[in-house]
Write a structure and sequence with these properties.
- By secondary structure, the chain is an alpha+beta fold.
- It has helices at residues 31-36, 98-112, and strands at residues 7-14, 20-27, 40-47, 57-60, 65-66, 74-85, 89-96.
- The chain is globular, with a radius of gyration of 13 Å.
- The N and C termini lie far apart (29 Å).
């Protein structure tokens, strides 16, 4: 298994209008799911666009991230989750520290459920 929960990876994200755009994203599903589902995992989108539905956003700061910094202020869009497999990943960028990952998961639950 090349990628793990909390990793920040770059993928071509499919948007509701049918277009694809390269974006960073955080792997939110656990490693066991990836193993059981033949390499499939779930990602939550990271973007610098703060205009759309800010109530579902979680702001990222450099100190929350291991091994990467974003050029622009970035947000996790907690309502935008998609399934991918390992070959869809362009590259690994870094990872989210556990305490902030836990907060992101809480925000995802609040946003979706």
């Amino acid at each position: 298994m090349k990628y793990h929960q909390r990793d920040i990876v770059e993928v071509s994200f499919l948007f509701p209008d049918g277009t694809f755009k390269p974006h960073p994203a955080i792997i939110v599903s656990n490693d066991q799911l990836q193993e059981d589902e033949d390499g499939m995992f779930y990602l939550v989108l990271i973007t610098s666009n703060d205009r759309l539905n800010p109530q579902y956003s979680y702001p990222l700061k450099d100190e929350m991230i291991i091994g990467h910094t974003f050029a622009k202020p970035s947000l996790v869009k907690c309502q935008i989750i998609a399934g991918y497999i390992e070959r869809d990943v362009v590259r690994r960028l870094g990872s989210i520290k556990q305490e902030y990952f836990n907060e992101i998961v809480d925000k995802i639950i609040e946003s979706i459920f």
